[in-house]
Amino acid sequence: MRAEVESQAHDLEALAPTRLRLVVDGGKAGELRVRADRGFLKILLTNLIENAVEAMEHLDSGEIRVELQRHGRHAMLRVHNDGDAVPEKLRRDIFRSGFSTKSTRKKGRGYGLRFCRRIALAHHGTLNYDESDLRPGASFVLTLPLERERRARKDSRHE
Q1: What is the C-alpha to C-alpha distance for residues 50 and 33, in angstroms, rounded to an integer?
Q2: Whole-angstrom distance, CA of residue 100 vs CA of residue 33
Q3: What confidence tens digit (pLDDT) does each residue in 136-156 have?
Q4: Is residue 139 part of a domain?
Q5: Helices 112-122 and 38-55, interaxial angle, to 10°?
Q6: pTM
Q7: Could you tell me which residues are beta bridge partners of residue 25?
């Protein structure tokens, strides 16, 4: 998964204006294997990065970090931006179909995060806004089960 994320993030660097820096941090994760559709993961990552860029439109400079790490039996991908945090009163609505914080001028229809969450769920994972990240800005976290963990669960259901 690490190589795929790094490749996709590199392809998506063009989305970030030159005043913004896109950083991919695989840390000590090594290569994490998940069973997931590459096309859908690319849609998900593209949406999160585009949202991060839009959240930083008003800044003269900033950073978008894509962080990948192993978290127990899951691969965890965090997309963090230095822009504005999602206001607390809106956090429970951001994954609701048709809800958008963007103006209609920016073509915010409110389906992007909802669709991304459905992609995560279809792959036995989760996508959430990370309220525990204390850095300024906003963080979204995708978790997907590591391939062997998912296979082991599936095998145990058939016994």
Answers
A1: 25
A2: 33
A3: 899 999 999 998 754 555 555
A4: no
A5: 150
A6: 0.82
A7: 67
pLDDT at residue 106 is higher than 70:
no
Lookup result for tokens 């995708």: 142
In a domain, 147, yes or no: no
Query: 97: which DSSP letter?
Result: T
Q: CA 102 to CA 117: how far, in whole Å?
A: 18
Say how far apart CA 108 and CA 90 lie, in whole Å.
15
**Which ranges of the chain would DSSP assign to H, the alpha helix?**
2-12, 38-55, 112-122, 147-157
Could you give the number of structural domains in the chain?
Answer: 1
More confident residue, 140 or 60: 140
**Two tokens at 123?**
């792959």
pLDDT score of 82 more than 80: yes
Query: Is residue 17 assigned to a domain?
Result: yes
CATH number at residue 58: 3.30.565.10
DSSP code of residue 86 = P
CB-based burial label for 158 (10 Å; 0-12, 13-18, 19+): exposed
